[in-house]
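Protein: WD40-like Beta Propeller Repeat
Species: Desulfobaculum bizertense DSM 18034
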Amino acid sequence: MVSASWNWEPGEQMLLDLGSCREKYEWIEELHASADGEKIAAVVNVEGEFTACVNGENWEDTYDRVWGLQFSPDGRLCGFAQSMGEWYVAVDGATWEGPYGYAWHLLFNNDGSRIGCAVQQDMRYGMATEGQLWDTFYANANNFTMSSDGSSTAAAVQTIDMGQAETEKFAAGTYSVAVDGKAWDHNFVNVFGISFSPDARHVAAEVRSGMYDYTICVDGKMWDTTYQSVWTPVFHPTTQAVVAPVRQKGQWTLAQDGRGIWPTFVQCWHPQFSADGQHLAAIVSPKFGRWTVAVDGTPWNASFGDSVTHLAMSADGKRAAAVGKEDEKWSLLVDGKAWQGKYDMVYAPRFSADGAHVGAVIEKGGKFSYAIDGKEYGRSFEQCWQPVFSPDSTHVLLRCVENDKYYRRVVPVSEITG
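Structure follows.
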């Protein structure tokens, strides 16, 4: 969640000297940077106990263990804390009421105002949002998700308890989708990826309707057509239509509400709509062993032999980018053309608000840096986080560790692109 209220003045701030910080602790774990770059945090060990350190300051309490730190989109530091064998959700050092038998998998709504997670309580499984547990817990739960506004949560749940050898019961279907703790009436052999509609009123999931049949189920009602396999569905941003990758007769395509809408491919997955719903992109394999991106059903000419991942679209839907791997080297594929740079790793790309620029973290020889519009930044770092473009698309926020110090830097995009 990028905000115009953040400090977008060009310049740098050194917010934490990690060398000095290490002298205070037994050890420091993985670093986490807030989206606005103003905070850098880590789990730290203090005389055998654990807490979180934010910009060099510890949370007030210590625990037997702390893990899973994440910054919410609105800048709060969240994680899981264990004390006396029980688990709590900690937000900026304050814990939800709890405790839980176990808690994991933090979820946030778009603006970060709502926080959820998966919970195990008395060997039953469900979810909690802002400390409020589902009314009903289940023998198993997975594929946890939250609506974009944070009003609802959902998960695949096992509604019928089953012993290890009860194969007939399994084949008849023991899984369903629970929305805010209430399961759909229909059971399936398996339930996989789950998605909310943008208005949070509808839920779609990929389901295994029989031992060898798969389809999409929306609000408890299955599509009329079954397939050899399916991937996670997505909702159209404005019409509430549901689109999902489906496999039929050994080939993959995209189907909308049970009807094919794209040509067939060897593989097709990770579909993504533009914000206005006018364009639809997906990662595809046009022929065996080659990967690329297709936009509105048409694959790009450039392709990679190893993989393509991290599909991203500009806000207006006119541009798309993805990370590609060929011969053990990574590059960025933008609008059908691969950047010239080849790297040990390229991380998820991000477009500027106006769609004019795209940037990513790159790794080469154990060092990290940034590339924007195919041009590399002339400095390297021990660690970097995804670049963040200013709302007016003229500047970029760089969050990085250089010479064992964490910096927040804002530079003009032109400083990198030339």
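Remarks: The CA atoms of residues 210 and 415 lie 57 Å apart.
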